[in-house]
Amino acid sequence: xxxxxxxxxxxxxxxxxxxxxxxxxxxxxxxxxxxxxxxxxxxxxxxxxxxxxxxxxxxxxxxxxxxxxxxxxxxxxxxxxxxxxxxxxxxxxxxxxxxxxxxxxxxxxxxxxxxxxxxxxxxxxxxxxxxxxxxxxxxxxxxxxxxxxxxxxxxxxxxxxxxxxxxxxxxxxxxxxxxxxxxxxxxxxxxxxxxxxxxxxxxxxxxxxxxxxxxxxxxxxxxxxxxxxxxxxxxxxxxxxxxxxxxxxxxxxxxxxxxxxxxxxxx
Length: 267
Fold this sequence. Notes:
Elements: H1 7-12, H2 15-23, E1 37-46, H3 47-59, E2 66-69, E3 92-96, E4 99-104, E5 115-121, H4 124-132, H5 138-141, E6 148-154, E7 164-173, H6 177-184, E8 196-197, E9 223-229, H7 233-241, E10 245-249, E11 255-260
Antiparallel strand pairs: 1-5, 1-10, 1-11, 2-5, 3-4, 3-10, 6-7, 7-9, 8-9
């Protein structure tokens, strides 16, 4: 199956076809893919750390909204259809003993039977609703990965797990910020409303042109940087806390699920 040629083709693709492409070696950020279907963050830890990760998510629900948890060793589940968490993301990040251990296109060779997979809500899920309301998404329009930043705000720790809040940023026209807040607040399972508007220095972000993850975007005149809690947060905690082995999605390279977006929308 050939890769879709442009944004319209990526948007129209079904999740099963997208996962087939990623399984076949296509590496790409997934913003704008499979319109109408939810995307998810992935974090995988040994069973010995799973309760602490679940507690960390419960204590920090904005960055870590749990959509599904698989049993130890399981590689598929109800949000995945025929998918496999070891092969069906476009790119993975690997961590060992609190150190980044590179990226890879699948994790078959490092998989262990005691690993527990968490799927967490992703803000890519509500981007279609923002676009339908006429609010532009700079990273999609500019063909880059969404910018993400480590902040100076600590998450509430859980046992051995601790780390900073990570946020994603989207420039929003100043006169549409209230609309963006209203629209995204209807998606609490995928981070919900923004955590901060403007003034990046208040989050400890010194330079918007130098994101910690993803790519910088051009901020048009009359736009404000708007920050949402980001599902890379537990990966920052895994890194800071010295988990022996952990797997995550490479930032911006998400798990495309079979769940329709509307399932995560509230009135």
